[in-house]
Amino acid sequence: MEYLIAVLTAVILIALLFVIKLLLRLDCKLDYAINTVINAQAEILSHALPDLDLHGLVEPSLVGSITTTPDRIALVHTAIESMMMQSVRPRSINLYVSDALRETELPDSLTRLRALGLNIHFVADVGPHTKLIYALQQFPDDMIVTFDDDMIYPSNTVDCLLKTHRKFPRAIAANWARAIPLDGKGQAQCIKKGKLLTPASLTRSANQKAHCATPGHHVFAYGTGGVLYPPGALDLRVQDVETFRALCPTEDDIWFKAMAMLAGTPVVPANLGIKPRHHNVRGSQLTALRHHNYKQERNRVQMQAVFEAFDLLPALGDASRIRRKPMVRIGRRKIEAPQH
Questions:
Q1: Can you state the angle between helices 252-262 and 130-138, rounded to 10 degrees?
Q2: Boundaries of every domain in the chain
Q3: Residues 6 or more apart from 143 whose CB is under 8 A from it?
Q4: Is 264 left (phi over 0), alpha (psi -120 to 50) or beta?
């Protein structure tokens, strides 16, 4: 009898494993199908864009900021176009590219967007941090929304950030956020281990009653979903190129999080609901930096380096210990203002 029970238990476990594996495969296929549809829609709209009127409202106090790499220069127009077709859009979108590139190397798919409000700036490339630090210099009195070059953004992305900002005007608003995870010794761990604080997908966001937006220093903003920075949200040490290249050269989100904490600015998760794998630009993930950061534990190593350097770990357990401090520029090397 015991032998029969053991056999039946083994059979049930094997069947469960098979079902789980099948469900995972079906989920991956569904993700791929959704991504294919979203990319096809974006491609159709891209061809029609020059003849379309942008009917979305313009938020005059908001500017968009994005960077890209030479190997994605032919793809970045897709992300930019999705931001141009927002229900509420920035008054301008600013693309910061390496000054090693020449105007003649920019594809027509990109340069044609200038007529629709895109500004292209050639700047010294300081890695992924290029996405925000130049815009902070150029637009110190404006709200800045950053977005990634490998994503197709839903049309309510900016509107969702703005609605959250109006509720919490002193906080940084993020459409994709996690709680910063700590181990038993109080050390920061890979951010993927943290609790997801935003809805995981658009299908869940409609009735996300359990989601309660609460600003906090423990909230970590992913650039992936779009992030809104109010004026003065970051400590001026954000411009210290030498330090962030030493501590977190491939993790701009960690650097911006640390600078927010030093300035006493919390992060608040928005309620958009976006599953990144649904919205990736086709062909962009071959060089996605975040995959290398997670596989090689760069995220954990760089998180610990930054948080220890600025003594930020205690604040994660007691947010009240972080107070807004006077901002003093201590950067060893000042970067030049962007040129059009």
A1: 40
A2: 2-49, 56-321
A3: 59, 61, 62, 63, 165, 228, 229, 230, 231
A4: left
Q: Which two tokens stand for residue 87?
A: 């229900």
Q: In CATH, what number does 56-321 get?
A: 3.90.550.10
Structure tokens at 36: 């294919």
The amino acid at 32: Y
Q: Which two tokens stand for residue 172?
A: 């940084």
Query: Quick check: 57 and 265 in contact, CB under 8 A?
Result: no
Amino acid at 47: H
Q: Determine the Cα angle at 71 with ends 227 and 221, to 5°.
A: 15
Pairing verdict, β 88-98 and 177-179: unpaired
DSSP states of 4-22: HHHHHHHHHHHHHHHHHHH
Q: What is the mean pLDDT of each run of 10 residues along the chain (340 residues)?
A: 62 59 57 72 72 79 96 92 93 97 94 94 97 98 96 91 96 94 86 83 44 84 94 98 97 97 96 69 60 67 95 71 40 46
pTM of the entire structure?
0.80
Measured between alpha carbons, how far is residue 20 from residues 16, 31, 60, 200, 288 in Å? 6, 16, 49, 20, 28
Q: What's at 326, amino acid-wise? A: P
Cβ atoms within 10 A of the Cβ of 305, count?
16
Residues 6 or more apart whose CB falls under 8 angstroms from that of 156 comprise 86, 87, 272
